[in-house]
Batch of 4 targets.
Target 1
Amino acid sequence: GAMTRFVISVVLVLLTASNGIGAPATLRAYDPPKAAPAFSFEDITGVVHTNADYRGQILLVHFWATWCIPCRQEMPSLVELSRRLQTNGVATIAVAVKEDHAAVRSFVAKNGIPFRVTVDPTDRSMTPWAAIGVPSTIVLDKKGMIRFRVTGQADWNGPGMTAMIGKLTTE
C-alpha cells in the first residue's frame, strides 16, 4: 500500500545518504513477498540451520567475505543490529563466500560476531538467492518470505534500516 511505498522511499533515501565509501547500497522490496529458497547451512560450529529453524523470526541471510573491504566496513553495523534486536526475534546467518574455514573462524573470533556464520568455499550458495556480489543481504519475514534485498554496504543501524526491520517485527 501507500504506507509501504512511503517507508521504502524513506529507506532508499536514508540507505544511500548514510553510506560512506563505495557505491551506495540498493534496496529492492518484494511486494508481494517471494518464497525463500530452501536452505541448509552448516555453521562454523557444525550446527545445521534450515528454513524451519527461523519460522516466526525475521531472518537476515547475509552474503559476505573477509577479503571484501565493504563487507568488513559493514560488519560492525550488522553486529550492532544483531545485538540490539536479537530479543525482538531478529536473527542473522552470515554466509562467507569463496572462503576457507580458518580465515572465517579467525575473523569471527577477532570481531566478536554474535550470529551464526557459515562458510561456502565457492559462491554457489548465492545462486538460489539471486544474490549478486558481496555484501548482499536478503531479509525474510516471520513466514520465511523474502521481503527485501539489500545489495552493497548498508548502515544497518541508520533510521531507514531500523524502520524497515521494525515494521517487519510488528507484522
Note: DSSP finds four helices and eight strands in the chain.
Target 2
Amino acid sequence: RGDYMVGYNKPGTNLGLTVAYPFRKNFDISMSLSFSQKGSRRTYDRFGNPQCGTWHLIRANYVEVPILINYRISFFDKEFVLLGGLSMARLMSETLKFGQFTGIESEKILRTWEYAFQLGAAYVINDNLNFFIRHSTSIFSVAQGDFSFFFSPYNVGLINLAASFGIERKF
C-alpha cells in the first residue's frame, strides 16, 4: 500500500519467547519478546520488468513485544485459540536497495518505533504444543516524516503487513 508492493512477497524470520498468565477458565494474557524480520520486495514479470514499487528491497529487523489476549475454544472436539492485541517494536537495523543489481543504500527511511495490532488463531496439538498463524498490521506509518495511520481514508503511508506461522512449545 504505502510502497505499492502489497503482498507477502518477502519472507523473514520470527523467533521469540512468550509468557502467559491465565485469568479465567478460557482466557489468558500473554507477552512475548521476539526478533521479527519485516520488509518488502519488488516483483518482476517473466521478462524481468518491475511490476510495481519504489525500490527493489527493504528489510527491517525489529525486536518486538506483543501483548495478546488469548481465548481458548472447543470446536468438534478440537481445541483452538483465538488471539488479538497490540505490539510495540524497536527497529534494530534496516537494509534498502533501490535497484535489483545495486548495492545497499545508506539512506534510512524507517522510524525507530512501530506500533501494530495483531490477530490470529492457533490449533492446540496437545497441552504443550500449538500450531499458530498470526497477522500483524502497523497502526501508524513506519516511514520517517509520514504521520498517516492505518484507518486514514486517504493515504495509509508505509505500513508493515506481516503474516507469521509456526509451532509454539510450552514449558
Note: The two ends are 39 Å apart (CA to CA).
Target 3
Amino acid sequence: EQLGTQKIILEYKGFTETFAVEVTNNIVGIELIVPNKLIYVKGEELDLTGAKLEVRYQDGSKEEVEITAEMVTGYDKDKVGIHTITVTYKGYTPTFEVTVKNEVVGIEIKSLPIKVKYIKGEMLDLTGSVLEIKYEDGSKEEMEIPEHFVVGYDTTLVGVQTLTVEYKNFR
C-alpha cells in the first residue's frame, strides 16, 4: 500500500528474481473552487486568493491544492472583456471566467431614491435610485445605488442630512 517504486522479490525453487513496480494513486477527479475576486478593472493583476483545486484520488482520499500564478493562463490585465482562465494541474485543465472592465473615470446620480423623507430611526431605502458609472472608453453602466456607497446617513439625527455617494474615489 506504499506509493512509489517498490521492490518485489520472487523466489521459486532456488531461483530469485528482483524487479521494481510503481505503485500509484491516480487522480479520478478535480473540482475547481474559484477565487474570491472575479471582476477586475483594466490594469489589475489577477488575484487568486481563495482559488483551490479539490483533487480526488482512486483510493477515496482528497487533497486541497492552492492555485498559483504558475498554474494559470488566459489572463491579460490590459484587455477589457471576459477572460477564460485555464488552470493546469497534472494533466487536468479546469477553467473559470473573470471580467476585466475599463477604468472608472466618473460617476453621476441620474435619479434620487423614491423615498427622501424619513422618521428618526428608519433605515435608508435607496429603491429607485440610479447611479451612472462612466468608463475610460466612453461606455456607461447604470445601477441602483448600493447602501455601502452612501456616506453620511445617521438614523439618530433629526433634520436635513447631506448624503454623499462614493465609488472608486469619485463623489
Note: The chain has a mean pLDDT of 91.
Target 4
Amino acid sequence: TYIVQKISIKTAIALKNVEIKIERTPPSQGISHPSGEVFEYLKIDEGNITSNQTSAVNITFKVSRTWVSENNINTSTISFQRYTDQWSKLATIQVNETSTDLIYIAISPGLSVFAITGESIRLQPQQEESQPQTIPEEQQPQEVKSRTGLLVLLIAITILSFGIVIYILVK
C-alpha cells in the first residue's frame, strides 16, 4: 500500500508534464537520525519543475494503526520531518482515520528526503511497594510532635474518666 496518498504543489506559474517520484528509502548514511520513532523514510523528487517554482507542497499521508500501537506512539506527535542540512518538523495535522490507518497532511516548502515520525508515550515505571518508614522523633515537624502529645493526653484523660466511673459504680 502507498503511504503518500496525495501531493499538491502550489506554483507561481502554470506548469505542464510535472513528474513526482516517491520512493521508500533506508536512512541515508551520513545523515543524523530524526527525533522520535521513525515509521518510514521517503524520498520525494520532482521532474520538469524546480524547487524555486514551488511555494508550498501539501503531502497527504497515512500511518498504520498497528505501528502506532506496537510502538506506543502518541498520535498527536506524529509528524512529517524534512531533511535539508538538518531535520525539521513540518506543520502536520491529522485529517481523517480509518479502521487501519491515521491520515495526516503536512505542509512543506519543497521536496526532499522525509521521515514520518512519532514520539512514544512515556509510561511511569511501576513504583515498588515499600514499607512505611518512620521518621525519628527529633526529625519530625513540631506540628506532628504536638499532635502526638495531645493524642496521648486525650487517651490518658479517657482512661482516667472510665476508672473514676467504674470506682463510683462499684462502691
Note: The chain is about 20% helix and 40% strand.
